[in-house]
Amino acid sequence: MENQPPSNRENTKPFFSPVRTVLRRTIFFGSVLTVNIVATLWLADLFWRMGFQKAHFPLLAIFAILNGLLVLGSFHALFGAFDTLMGRKRSVRISKLAEDNAGPLQQRHAVVIPVYNEDSVRVCARIEAIYRSIEATGTLESFDFFILSDTRDLDLWVMEETSWTNLCRRLGGFGRIYYRRRKTNENRKAGNIGDFVRTWGGGYESMLVLDADSLMDGADVVKMTRVMEAYPRLGILQTPPKLIRGISVFTRLQQFAMRLYGPLFIRGLNYWQLSGGSYWGHNALIRVKPFSEFCELPALPGREPFGGRILSHDFVEAALMVSQGWEVWLAWDIEGTYEEAPPTLIDHLIRDRRWCQGNLQHLWLIFARKLPFSVRMHLFMGIMAYLSSPLWFLFLALGTWVAWDRFSSQLSELPFDNYSSRWLHIDGIQQSIILTLFVFILLFLPKILAVIGAILSGRTRRSFGGAIPIICGALIEVIVSMLLASCVMLAHTMMVMSIIRGRAVGWGNQNRETDGTAWSDAFRFHSAPTILGIIWALIALKINLNFAAWMSPILAGLILSAPVSVWTSRSRYGRALGRRNILSTPEEINPPEIIRLADHATAAVDPALDASIDARRGVVAAIVDPYVNGVHVSLLEHTELTPSEEALAERCLSEGPAHLTKNELSELLYLASAMLMMHRAVWLRPSESMHNVWNQAVESYRRRLDQSQATPSIE
Q1: Per-residue pLDDT band at 697 (split at 50, 70, 90)
Q2: pLDDT per position as a tens digit, 507-565
Q3: In Å, what is the CA distance from 76 to each residue of 51, 205, 352, 398?
Q4: Are 386 and 499 spatial neighbours (Cβ–Cβ below 8 Å)?
Q5: What is the pLDDT of residues 132-179, one digit of tens each?
Q6: How far apart are CA 574 and CA 347, in angstroms?
Q7: Which of 114, 181, 411, 426 fits 149 for a cystine, CB–CB 3.0-4.6 Å?
Q8: What is the DSSP string of 389-403?
Q9: How buried is residue 159: exposed, middle or buried, by Cβ count under 10 Å (0-12/13-18/19+)?
Q10: Rounded to the nearest 5 degrees, what angle is found at the Cα of 361, between the Cα atoms of 357 and 365?
Q11: pLDDT attached to residue 1
Q12: Which helix (H) or strand (E) holds 355?
């Protein structure tokens, strides 16, 4: 398909036939619905054999929902395996539009990286890698880069400026790599992106939205922009990022599972969603014009947590795009797309708290008018990712209550006649075993298919380090995931209950590096599941051993939540597994070029322009250091100082920055005249007239000079 301007959208033939799209969705969801109905009727028949009680009605209703979600997930993997067997040529791949196009790009595109209290050196290292990788394709002239800061930590703000300046100096990136910090971070990340679109978006055909921990191969970025230019109906092109750089056992488990099992689920998802896909908030290419026109998010009615600003904005933005006739595709075959994950279970659950509130807000939208079927399904799956936990907890609690009731009544079972006994000639135990086996097959079928597929494919098997590491890694992942499942279930249940009670979540920065969870933190964070698990286990043992055995995987996960949380957070155990290629991924065993570029990127670091030295860090460096002060002031608007502003600057000099409020210090940092005045003062005024923090900062230069003079030169 030749390049066409966006105005030709209505005249462009759909990439995939709408009739075939409807047929695929009918087959997929018809299969899910049929299997779920059969399983639910089987359980109803079993309840009938036992003698139907009132408690069985909610149990049956909850089972229908939970089993439906289980069937839905399992069938994504099943259809993904089918799509894989069909072969790459017969699979639906929108990225093939770029395969025969090697000419120059026709439009300009932006790479945007929103940051919030991040390590600026690491962020700039990723930008450097992407920059150099795109440069190697010969298309760098078509791209500009934007670091969009919402950082509230004032020291980190100054470090972002120095890192960006060093990056631009080393790469020759001035005029191509831009930095902007918002004075007020209204509406979080969505507001940050929206501010970019309103201010600069008109100059670009599309924007590649990345997270602070995102990394993408330049050749794949160019391929995505070629697809965007070639297909005017395309609004969003989402990629499935792989997890990288995990060191702890927890992140290695996530990496391994996503890398081994993920491709099947991604292919299965693409099988039915096709042009009605979703946006995951990062590692996606977005056409700017329709995004600007249709994706301005209104505030929901009421107050947070259910009202107010939409937290999970990405799903809603994709929904608005699709509802206006634009297509959203998942580029499942884009390989060079990466991100990082929280290092511990506790960090993962803290992040989940934000996602939970955002997804539950979609309850307002799922029944909105004019939304296509695929959009409603994505919203539904996002909501149920969290509502399924309290439903599962309620199912287990009701099951325990029914078992206790039967135990305490000491009534013998009456032999009720049912369809299974009449037609299949099986007893109640056999019927229960069949249902249990069915559930376990649904749970483990995706993993089994993925392991078999990886072992049978020589290329995939070698990329994971061999068959033995794959099997060992899968077994460890299954065991640990079973232990984590009940802990996550209770955590999500408590999140949902907290949101229902009206407790809104704040906006905190993510912890991307740690050396493990302390035992005290683990027992404090996991005290509720531990206590509940012990009490529940005693009740189960009181009922009978068979019931306790049936509940044992769930109860073990609750009771051992703190030790498992600590063990999986440890980096040393993760490294020990990695040395044996267990829970290793292809990107760890044989890192792609883009990861190696990021690992060795140093452009943002320069001792001549550094705001991270202990004696003059951040704000202090911006006032004392000539180079840091020069960079900071160059990014400000120059205005005359008012008497009150000058008095505030004098207070900062005499009392030190620690004695100013954060708002006062922030105000000073935005005043170019004040920053220049304070810089001259710390170097020219007598030390007795200033706070000691400035004297120590100035003295640090003398110590550095003395050290350099004492170091013998090497001939």
Answers
A1: very high
A2: 555 555 556 899 999 999 999 999 999 999 999 999 989 899 989 999 999 999 999 99
A3: 36, 33, 23, 29
A4: no
A5: 999 999 999 999 999 999 999 999 999 999 999 999 999 999 999 999
A6: 17
A7: 181
A8: HHHHHHHHHHHHHHH
A9: buried
A10: 160
A11: 37
A12: helix 345-360
Distance CA 243, CA 257 (A): 10
Given a contact cutoff of 8 angstroms between Cβ atoms, the answer to whether 568 and 344 are in contact is yes
Compute φ and ψ for 119, nearest 5 degrees: -75, 105
Contact present, 266 and 332 (Cβ < 8 Å): yes
Q: How far apart are CA 297 and CA 311, in angstroms?
A: 10
Helix/strand/coil for 109: strand
Query: Residue 277 and residue 285: Cα distance in Å, rounded?
Result: 13
E strands in 508-637: 612-613, 616-617
SS3 track for 86-100: HCCCCCCCHHHHHCC
| Residue type for position 304 | E
Q: pTM for this one?
A: 0.92
Domains and CATH numbers, the chain: 107-340 (3.90.550.10), 612-710 (no CATH)
Distance between CA atoms of 273 and 621, rounded to whole angstroms?
52
Q: Would residue 664 be called left, alpha or beta, if left means φ above 0 and alpha means ψ between -120 and 50 degrees? A: alpha
**How many other CB atoms are there within 10 angstroms of residue 410's CB atom?**
6
Q: Mention every residue, 6+ apart, whose C-beta is less than 8 A from residue 275.
A: 14, 15, 16, 21, 233, 322, 327, 328, 329
Q: In angstroms, rounded to a whole number, what is the distance separating the alpha carbons of residues 441 and 612?
A: 54
Residue 95 confidence (pLDDT): 95
Query: What's the rounded Cα separation, in Å, for the pair 345 and 514?
Result: 12
**Average pLDDT of the chain to the nearest whole number:** 91
The candidate with the shortest Cα–Cα distance to 494, out of 356, 363, 379, is 356
Which amino acid makes up residue 49?
Answer: R
C-alpha 185 chain-centroid distance: 20
Distance CA 197, CA 287 (A): 11
Q: Single out the residue of 79, 91, 84 nearest to residue 35, CA to CA.
A: 79
Residue type, 228: M
**C-alpha distance from residue 117 to each of 168, 482, 615 (Å):** 21, 34, 21
DSSP string, 39-84: HHHHHHHHHHHH---TTHHHHHHHHHHHHHHHHHHHHHHHHHHHHH
436 CB burial (10 A radius; 0-12, 13-18, 19+): exposed
Q: DSSP letters along 629-653, please?
A: HHHHHHTS---PPPHHHHHHHHHHH
Q: Is the pLDDT of residue 181 over 90?
A: yes
* Interval 302-326 mean pLDDT: 86
pLDDT recorded at residue 417: 61
C-alpha distances in Å from residue 456, one per residue of 449, 452, 459, 590: 11, 6, 9, 20
State mean pLDDT over 630-636.
96
- H/E run at residue 666: helix 662-669
- Helix (H) / strand (E) element for 530: namely helix 527-543
Q: Residue 105 CB: number of other CB atoms within 10 A?
A: 19
Question: Over the stretch 251-293, which tens digit does the pLDDT of each residue have?
Answer: 999 999 999 999 999 999 999 999 999 999 999 999 999 999 9
Q: Which two tokens stand for residue 418?
A: 């049912």
**What's the rounded Cα separation, in Å, for the pair 506 and 513?**
21
Determine the Cα angle at 406 with ends 402 and 408, to 5°.
115
pLDDT per residue over 444-501, tens digit each? 999 999 999 999 999 999 999 999 999 999 999 999 999 999 999 999 999 999 988 8
